[in-house]
Amino acid sequence: MQTNLASWASGTDLGNEADAILRRCVHCGFCTATCPTYQVLGDELDSPRGRIYLIKQVLEGKEPTQSTQQHLDRCLTCRNCETTCPSGVEYGHLVDIGRKIVDERVERSWGDRTRRTLLRKAMLSPMFAPAMRLGQSLRGLLPQALRRKVPERRDAGALPQVGHHARQVLMLAGCVQPAMMPTIDAATIRVLDAVGIGARIAPGAGCCGAVSFHLDAQDEAVAQMRANVDAWWPLVQDGKVEAIVMNASGCGAMVKEYAHHLRHDPVYAQKAADIVALVKDVAEIVAPHAELLRARLPAGMRAAFHPPCTLQHWQGLRPLSEQLLADLGFELQPFADKHLCCGSAGAYSVLNPDIALELRDRKLGAIAAASPDVILSANIGCIGHLQSGTDTPVRHWVEVVDEQLRRAAQG
C-alpha cells in the first residue's frame, strides 16, 4: 500500500512504525473472513481492512471524527486477522497507534470518558477485592447484567511451602484475578509444586498494564510496565528464577510485548527484552512434565478447550496447549470456529455488551454441539464471560488438573 504521511506524522517514531505496517498491507481482504466484528456487524469499516484505511487517512492528514473513533473502539484486538494475513501485517500494533492518535484529536463524550475512567480505576483500585467479595456474597440479589460479571467464589485452598525447590519461578500478581478467581493462582502454585517447581510473586509487581493500555491510558500502562520490570529485575539479574509464569494469557500477551513498548526507553529497553525472554505461559512450563502428572490423573474427562485469542493469535500457543491437555488425559472435543473470539477481550464486554454477548452466544452454541462435561480455557476474562452464558462449568485447565491431583492424593 502506498502512503503519504502528513508532516506531523512523517519522521516520528509512531509515524515510521505505522508507515512500515501500512506498506505491507495489500488490501486482499482475507482478514475480513476471520474478523469477529465484521461477522457480527457486516460493516467494512468494522473490519481490519476498513480500520487500516481509516488509520491511513488520519496519518495522511484527514481529521478523525467520533465515527472514526467508534470503529477503532469496536475492534476486539483479537489479532485473528494477523494469523490470517498472508503479508504479515502487524495490525495489533497499528490499531494501538491509531487509537492513540485519534484519542488525542477526538474528545469523547462526558459519559464515555467517565465510564472508561471509572472502569480503569475500579479494576486497579485496592478496593476492588473487598468490593468483589461483597458482590459475591450478594450475587443472588444482583441484576443479571451485573451478576454475569461477578463469578461465584470458590475456596482457594491451602498453599504448599515451595521455597525448598531448586527450580523457582515468578508469577504475576495481576489486578483482578486474585480477587475474582483466586483458585487459578492457588492451583498454579500447587501444580508447579507437584512437578518440583516453586512459584512466588515478587513484591512490588502488579497489573501487567493491559487494563490501562486499552482504556485510553497508554502512558499509565507504560509506567506499570516499568514498575513490573523494576520488581522482577533484581531476582532475574541474580539468576534466582528461571521463568516468569503467566496463568492468564491476556497478561502473558501484554508482558511479552514489554520489549516493544519500551524499545525507545534507554533505561528499560534492554531490561524489558531480558524480561520478555523469560516469560512463559503456565502450559509451557507444565508440558515437559505431562507424563509425570498423567500417571496421577484419571482419564476420560470430556472437555472442550476454548483457546483465548491472546493465547492462540498473540502467542501462538494453541497447539502446545491442546497437546498438553490431550497428554494429561482430557478427551478434547472439536467444535466449530475455535479460532474466533468469544467477545470478552478485557473491558470490551463492558463497553460493547451487545457485540460481546452475540459473540459469546455464538461460541457457546458451537461448544454445546460437542456436549462437553467441562469447558477449559486459559484466561480469566474468557472464563468469566463464557460462564455467564452457560450452566456447563467453565474453568482454567490448571484448576481442573489441580483438583484431580488433590482428589488422587486424598484417595
Helical percent range? 40-55%
Strand tally, please? 8
| Rg for CA atoms | 21 Å
Spatial shape: globular
Taking pLDDT < 50 over at least 5 consecutive residues as the criterion, the unreliable ranges are none
What spatial order of strands do you see in the largest sheet? 2-1-3-4
Mean pLDDT: 94
The helix/strand class is alpha/beta
Largest sheet: 4 strands, parallel
User: How many helices in DSSP terms?
Assistant: 24
Taken as a percent bin, the fraction of beta residues is 5-15%
Explain briefly what this protein structure is.
By secondary structure, the chain is α/β, with parallel strands linked by helices. The chain has helices at about 15-20, 35-40, 50-60, 65-75, 80-85, 90-105, 110-125, 130-135, 145, 175-180, 180-195, 210-215, 220-235, 250-255, 260, 270-280, 280-285, 290-295, 310-315, 320-325, 350, 355-370, 380-385, 395-410; strands at about 165-170, 195-200, 245, 280, 300-305, 330, 375, 395.
Account of the protein in words:
- This protein has 411 residues and is an alpha/beta fold.
- The protein contains 24 helices and eight strands.
- It has helices at 13-22, 36-41, 48-59, 66-73, 80-84, 91-105, 110-124, 128-137, 144-147, 177-180, 182-194, 210-213, 218-237, 249-255, 258-261, 269-278, 282-286, 290-294, 309-314, 318-327, 348-351, 353-368, 380-387, 397-410; strands spanning 167-171, 197-201, 243-246, 279-281, 302-305, 331-332, 374-377, 394-396.
- The protein has a four-stranded parallel sheet.
- Strand 7 (374-377), helix 23 (380-387) and strand 8 (394-396) form a beta-alpha-beta unit.
- Helix 3 crosses helix 6, helix 4 runs antiparallel to helix 6 (91-105) and helix 11 (182-194) crosses helix 24 (397-410).
- The protein starts with 12 loop residues before the first helix and ends with a helix.
